[in-house]
């Protein structure tokens, strides 16, 4: 529960609610509806005129299960200051993966998340997309996700279309991404991800930099407080300081003592964007993201080392007094700079040709303390401090030919400097990639896509390719089938003596609107040849100290999901209020060498239902969410190598204990109050990293000078 000595949060909450009503009540409620709609239509026409390729962040043809369930409304948005009529409009697609084409899967806009309960990008991915959460239960930890049965190293994470993954691990901690600094999160899956990104085996996330355009100061605050002394504060400032020039700056601080020993967090982020838009079709930006991220890497709860305080013969892994961490003395500190110079331009007046490119530099200072270190390296120090860095350039050219054929070509070159450590091999060298991608629109009801990507890294070469077909059966139904074949190289932490993984991934997605109801679903099958699997390394006492990696013959994963959402009741009290429900069912089956490894629950289901009422621009939402999953073993996470090793004990059927929430919008202020895990149920997604017990979270976001 929230500490009693932090009473100022209640004062902030009260001031926010009443301040919003006082300062914004007049403008929000007195403006005639006809005039307001006219202004919004005029604004939309102006944006469309300046950017013919601009699409809404919530795409109408998305195959996402949840994006259609967004609570966004069609009014001016408090996440962006009013457009400045004096200077040019910045190119709205600046920072996207492709300038002339959207993801066929999903794009999560900063406007879509205003009513979401989130503290990190991981939370947003869990809520808006079809993934299995690899949540470690506490804020700031390596809370990743499994797309289509893949693991974190199968996901490529980009910022403004350039890679930001840690080179030693081949993955990135999503908790380090500030949630208030993006315009959109693009998600590509299947062949598009394989072709458009490096070392992906089926999923690509691209963080598009935030865009603001205002001649008066734009300021936004985000504040959240929850149990275990969790505090999250974020501030953003933006202003056009000269014709065609904008500067945006922000900070974030997140901290918690953690629920269990050695799970604390102290994270700082300072960021800045300098943007120049010499024309309506061209934008340059220089961005800097500085992150100082410290976490206690306890490795979850060790059942063997925990205490039986009740002398009942049972270890309660959900009791902070009994539970003991796997690694009592282990932590990581990452001090990282990401510097990017980006350009995006429509080359022709009819927006049929475009170019985007960037040069970039990333440097991370790692401060790691690990005890024990390894059993095969007795000379290694418990404390290791080293730098890893990479720099390079990437670019793309795109063209639309008579609105029938879309083509994109591009590539990158990156120089890496990764030193050897007790847990990874050294790598100093050049990587290069080139790709070609195309979409053929045969008629309004069928789009065929496909392409190929060549990649050279770690002394290995690969050729990945894939194809897809999007069927638009009617205005209300879309089906996409996709097939891809790709390699994933072993990373320095896995060791270069291993063979490449070879992934064959097939998937089908559909989206069907029936009146106010939305039905969406997916099915996938993934076959991996020479999968790189981790196994535990124990010391002479039987304690886990590390992991090692090896190739197996094969791994197979099949799965699917089905989501139904609809308004059950409309106009119950007011003319425009509603009761909404969303039901999601997921299934996954994983085998290694033909034997069920029980990595995922065979069944998982959730129900989210809420009542929403709206009076002019003010909104009130009250609801609950429930989640359950069947028995599974799962894989234990080893923080030193970001590895997942088989776990021997099976977890019985579990539930999330029910989350209850209240969300409001008053003027430009959004307030979200959530009581998580009302029943204080004990459950986890990754063994044994218990999810939070019963606790309240209060979150406020406010664009107070908008």
Concise account of the structure shown:
With 706 residues, the protein is mostly beta strands. The protein contains four helices and 35 strands.
List keywords for this structure.
single chain, 706 residues, mainly beta, 22-stranded antiparallel barrel, 5-stranded mixed β-sheet, 4 helices, 8% helix, 51% strand, globular, disordered N terminus
Question: How is this fold's topology laid out?
Answer:
Elements: H1 8-30, H2 33-50, E1 106-109, H3 121-128, E2 131-134, E3 144-147, E4 155-159, E5 162-163, E6 182-189, H4 191-196, E7 203-209, E8 218-226, E9 230-242, E10 245-256, E11 265-279, E12 282-296, E13 329-346, E14 353-371, E15 383-401, E16 405-418, E17 427-443, E18 446-457, E19 460-474, E20 477-488, E21 501-514, E22 517-529, E23 532-538, E24 544-551, E25 554-570, E26 578-592, E27 595-596, E28 604-615, E29 618-629, E30 635-638, E31 643-646, E32 654-655, E33 659-666, E34 669-676, E35 695-702
Provide an overview of this structure:
The chain is mostly beta strands. It contains four helices and 35 strands. It is globular and about 75 Å long. The two termini are 33 Å apart. The model is unreliable at 1-86 (pLDDT under 50).
| Number of helices, where a helix is a run of at least 4 consecutive DSSP H or I residues | 4
Question: Main sheet?
Answer: 22 strands, antiparallel, barrel
**Fraction in beta strands:** over 45%
Specify the overall morphology: globular
Q: What structural class should be given to the helix and strand makeup? A: mainly beta
Kindly state the number of beta strands.
35
Quote the average pLDDT. Answer: 86
- Radius of gyration over alpha carbons? 25 Å
Helix fraction, binned, reads under 10%
- The separation of the N and C termini measures 33 Å
Pick out the low-confidence regions: 1-86
